[in-house]
Amino acid sequence: METRTIGAAEVAEKIEAENAKLSERLAAGIPALIRLVKVALSDTGQSQVCGRFLLGLYNGPCYRFDLTDLRRLDTELFDDCMSVLRMDANPVREVHNLIEDGDVVFRRLRMYWATEDEASDWPQDELNEWSQHHVGH
Predict the structure, then answer these.
(1) Structural domain boundaries of the chain?
(2) CB-hemisphere CA count at 13 Å for 42?
(3) How far is the C-alpha of 128 from the C-alpha of 107, rounded, in Å?
(4) Residues 16-60: pLDDT tens digits?
(5) Which among 22, 39, 66, 103 could bridge 50 via Cys, Cβ 3.0 to 4.6 Å?
């Protein structure tokens, strides 16, 4: 394999191009994130999918997300998910830190959309709060 030395100008050009791409992803992703949070905290047929998608980005090992659930979304929300995913592919910050009061917002998402298995090892006060949201589910 042949290696090639690149000059400082080419490095600067590549960095500038990547920064422009990042700015574009943020410009599309943050408004999409805000729209998804709004839906996830409401009571629509698509709220659970949006909530679980966001929790999966927040902490994928703890909150698994089935990609086939994206098929349940309308085109606009699906596109918002893709914008947020694209933005989060090379994150500048964790997803919950990109919105105002993100810790509080994502705690609410956990209370609404975490499964019983996911909530089972939470501290008792959080488990009690989660249980209040899931009476009769």
Answers:
(1) 33-133
(2) 10
(3) 14
(4) 767 678 889 999 999 999 999 999 999 999 999 999 999 999 999
(5) 39
